[in-house]
């Protein structure tokens, strides 16, 4: 089918994609049985924003496992756990519990690519949000975005459904803040949500949340959501949309959803899980991994064996690749690196590193050319 014919089909069903939504929904449900992925463009945009904010993006990249091609080959997508971990690490590195909220305000919405263009070329907010939600799996899998209208209230929700993504508070804060900022830019000065809802609890940071979001807040909810008056849905986006471009983007994203099924293989998914757990100083024992991947320990070990993988060897490899990246590209001291990688003693880290690389950590750092201004730990 030619692009012209596809666009004619899209025009005949302006609120839906060229590919039947039922097919896309089945496709999404199948994808949600695997480990989540996200477009690399979103990660690149996130790291660029972190760097512009004055934070050492090299440290963030190294800690989440993106500082080494030995862990994840270059691709147009990457583990969702790496994206959520980047936000959690940045929050920890800055000692800022609402880092995600602040970054969401400054993040360029257009950086998420075609999905942003799809929204911005829609004629009204209702169609923009509907199309955004419908095509969201093209940006990020194992997640749900949905617009629900009931009586005079609209609710635009977002949530991650992936047991291998353990920590997602900063991701929720970042996403809700980004979407709220995007809606404010679309609606104008009279924009004010009725409520912003979060899955997580605020802990001791309720006052900080209120300082960033000038509207009622609710925590411990079923999913993250922005609630607002239905009347806003009829507002035009920009000058009222660009129908030709909007239909073209919708068709392209529909084709992407239907024809290209992106999945992480088990080994790549497990590498991302280990790196994310290390970022949060959480357990990386095999029984915890099996549980998060939805398997019994015996089934998990059998699946690894089918892939020719020994869990302990893979865990050590992930640790060492992250260690090499931290030694070569950051100013963190060797004791701090050892601690971040879950070693209770520096000597254990040094022995393991030398056994697997042939160098002591200090010699490897020197060999990499990273001589100066190393932080003391």
TrEMBL record:
The HTH araC/xylS-type domain, residue ranges: 268-367
Recorded GO CC terms: cytosol
Keywords: DNA-binding, Transcription, Transcription regulation
Pfam families (UniProt xref): Arabinose_bd, HTH_18
Top-level division of the source organism's lineage: Bacteria
PANTHER family listed in its UniProt record: HTH-TYPE TRANSCRIPTIONAL REGULATOR GADX, HTH-TYPE TRANSCRIPTIONAL REGULATOR VQSM
MF GO annotations: DNA-binding transcription factor activity; transcription cis-regulatory region binding
Protein name according to UniProt: Helix-turn-helix domain-containing protein
Upper taxonomic lineage: Bacteria, Pseudomonadati, Pseudomonadota, Alphaproteobacteria, Hyphomicrobiales
InterPro entries: AraC-type_N, Homeodomain-like_sf, HTH_AraC, HTH_AraC-typ_CS
Coiled-coil residue spans: none
Organism per entry: Agrobacterium vitis (Rhizobium vitis)
Keyword Plastid annotated: no
